Amino acid sequence: MSSASQHYRLSDDLLGPVLAILDAHQDPYLAQGLVSAGCVNKLDIEGKRLLLGLVYPYPCMTQYRDTVMTVTKALAVLDAIDEVECEIDFQPATISALSAVDPLPNVKQIIAVASGKGGVGKSTTAVNLALALAAEGAKVGILDADIYGPSIPLMLGVTDFKPVSPDGKMMTAAEAHGITAQSIGFMLGQDEAAVWRGPMAAGALAQLLSETQWPELDYMVIDMPPGTGDIQLTLSQKVPVTGAVVVTTPQDIALADAKKGVSMFQKVNIPVLGIVENMSFHVCTECGHKEHPFGSDGGRKMAERYQVPLLGELPLKLNIREDVDNGVPTVVADPDGEVAAIYRDIARRVGAQLALTQVTPSVSINISEDE
Ligand SMILES: Nc1ncnc2c1ncn2[C@@H]1O[C@H](COP(=O)(O)OP(=O)(O)OP(=O)(O)O)[C@@H](O)[C@H]1O
């Protein structure tokens, strides 16, 4: 990876040691030194004050302070430097090869959150991932494409939102907790979903995505319908998804279905960014005993087998459910808690994986009226 533009204004004597020190700082998510990862885009010196500019390809705002402290301490060994002024920014990669038909010019990356099986916590993961990416400094949207049970309006507390179309073409989206949301649930009546044929549903969902007035977004998270059937396959082909996250629980049956999810994305050349194991463990609030009600290590073994990262393991925890039921997901309801920290860690991993994957959209979107 290399940075878009680098401004280095140091003498050769100083540049070498500074770059060596910065490259010795391994970024945990990119698994490379800061220089090799292309994060160092500015180096200048005023007297003995080093001006350092870092640009990350994934959002990591909650880590900025730690990074500044570590890097400043490391550079302090050089006699020529007695102060470091560090600016950190985030700039996600933009999809490199967009098709001629580009329905989402405002969106840099599209992440599909999928599961092989219903009820594993896909929507809970999708909404918390979207909010965690936002908490790390990204501009984020979420599309609730789960026609079997659109739950994002409830989870974001925007159940009474009704999209309008002032120009008769593009629909408005809801705003909640700093992210933009569109949901099939805003459009559907109670029992409409179940009767849709696969291609028709996928067409309608792709249309919903392309005909919504999204603001400039770094990431669009799509909460996919559960399963690996026609709708999911067609949707994956109609939308230029740049990476997929597969959610599973550790139990055998969910894992078997999640494997089908991974294979489906691999078949349509969508990079699988990794696996989230939800409801991995439960810690008793009274005695602190940790148990694995649905088995253990399934997600890890699956990740190893398919050679994709295990992005994180979430506990089975009452307040995760209560928070989404209250319309304020845990990342927002308890930002300093350990669950929010896990979601933010997953968000950084997802952003870094997208940056590390040479992404091109799966296919161009071509929506025909009859689908
Ligand atoms: N880690 C967790 N701890 C406790 N409850 C959870 C956790 N993850 C999800 N839940 C709860 O489990 C239920 C199912 O979650 P969710 O709706 O996110 O699953 P899903 O896979 O999207 O389901 P569907 O297939 O119906 O769309 C919800 O009530 C949710 O609040």
Question: How would you describe this structure to a colleague?
Answer:
Belongs to the Mrp/NBP35 ATP-binding proteins family. This is Iron-sulfur cluster carrier protein. InterPro entries: FSCA_dom_sf, Mrp-like_CS, Mrp/NBP35_ATP-bd, NUBPL-like, P-loop_NTPase, YlxH/NBP35. It comes from Shewanella eurypsychrophilus. The structure is a single chain. The chain is an alpha/beta fold and 371 residues long. The chain folds into two domains: 7-90, GMP Synthetase, Chain A, domain 3 (2-Layer Sandwich), CATH 3.30.300.130; 107-356, 3-Layer(aba) Sandwich (Rossmann fold). It is built from eleven helices and 15 strands. Strands 7, 8, 9, 10, 11, 12, 13, 14 and 15 form a nine-stranded mixed β-sheet that branches. Strands 1-4-5-6 form a four-stranded mixed β-sheet, with helices on one face. Strand 5 (49-56), helix 2 and strand 6 form a beta-alpha-beta unit. Helix 3 (122-135) packs across helix 11 (338-356) and helix 5 (198-210) packs parallel to helix 6. The longest helix has 19 residues, at 338-356. The model is unreliable at 97-101 and 359-371 (pLDDT under 50). Bound molecules: adenosine-5'-triphosphate. Adenosine-5'-triphosphate binds next to helix 3, strand 13 and helix 9.
Short description, anyone?
The protein is an alpha/beta fold and 371 residues long. It has helices at residues 12-24, 64-75, 122-135, 152-156, 198-210, 230-238, 252-267, 298-306, 318-325, 330-333, 338-356; strands spanning 7-9, 26-27, 32-33, 40-46, 49-56, 83-90, 107-115, 140-144, 174-176, 179-183, 217-223, 243-248, 272-283, 290-291, 310-315. The chain is built from 11 helices and 15 strands.
